[in-house]
Write a structure and sequence with these properties.
2 domains, about 210 residues, Tetracycline Repressor, domain 2, Arc Repressor Mutant, subunit A
């Protein structure tokens, strides 16, 4: 015979909308993926953590890889989409400052997720494909016009865009690694200060001109 608590939990689940169940699944998947890795996780475990039947997962996500994209995309991509929409009148330099600050905040708030992403991407092609096809391609499509606008206006040198983004994201990722490995040793007290210092080095370098 089921307890009152179990009946109450079942009743609560039955009242949830499809979107609420989807969010429960995404939150559970994030927790399980970061704890066990992509290959070490099963949809059965994720379903238990979300409080749904395993079949419910596949009503929202056709494959485990699609579920991974569903977990990563709002965390990694939504901020870029928002910046692009809300800063239409910004200069390219202003956009890149906002972009950098947004990425630093993202790293600070999702340390476990980023360690999972880049540890797993080294060894699992499905994770690499999910990152590139589901997220990075769209991010590049959004950011590249801002760089091209900066070149047209004479703000930026016409360097290869992917080389630029590799260097830019290297700053962001090492910021997260440094703060994780050496907590408390960051030379900046705030993300604004970190963004300003990093952009000064990125745009102007060490050389006195």
């Amino acid at each position: 015979m089921k307890s009152k608590q179990e009946n109450k939990q079942r009743e609560t689940r039955s009242k949830k909308t499809a979107e609420e169940r989807r969010q429960d699944i995404l939150e559970a998947a994030l927790m399980v993926f970061t704890q066990k890795g992509f290959n070490g996780s099963t949809t059965a475990e994720i379903a238990r953590a979300a409080g749904v039947a395993e079949g419910t997962i596949f009503r929202h996500f056709a494959t485990k890889k699609e579920l991974l994209v569903g977990v990563l995309k709002p965390k990694v991509l939504d901020g870029i989409i928002y910046l692009d929409k809300e800063h239409k009148e910004a200069t390219p330099v202003e956009f890149f400052r906002c972009f950098l600050k947004n990425r630093l905040e993202l790293i600070n708030e999702n340390d476990g997720l980023f360690r999972f992403m880049f540890a797993e991407a080294q060894y699992h092609s499905e994770v690499r494909e999910a990152l590139f096809q589901g997220i990075l391609e769209q991010g590049i499509t959004i950011v590249k016009p801002w760089f091209e606008k900066g070149v047209e206006q004479g703000d930026f040198r016409p360097l290869p865009f992917l080389s630029l983004m590799r260097s830019f994201m290297a700053m962001v990722l090492f910021y997260g690694i440094f703060n994780h490995v050496f907590p408390g040793l960051s030379p900046e007290k705030t993300i604004d200060e970190a963004a300003d210092n990093m952009l000064e080095l990125f745009f102007n370098g060490l050389l006195i001109k």
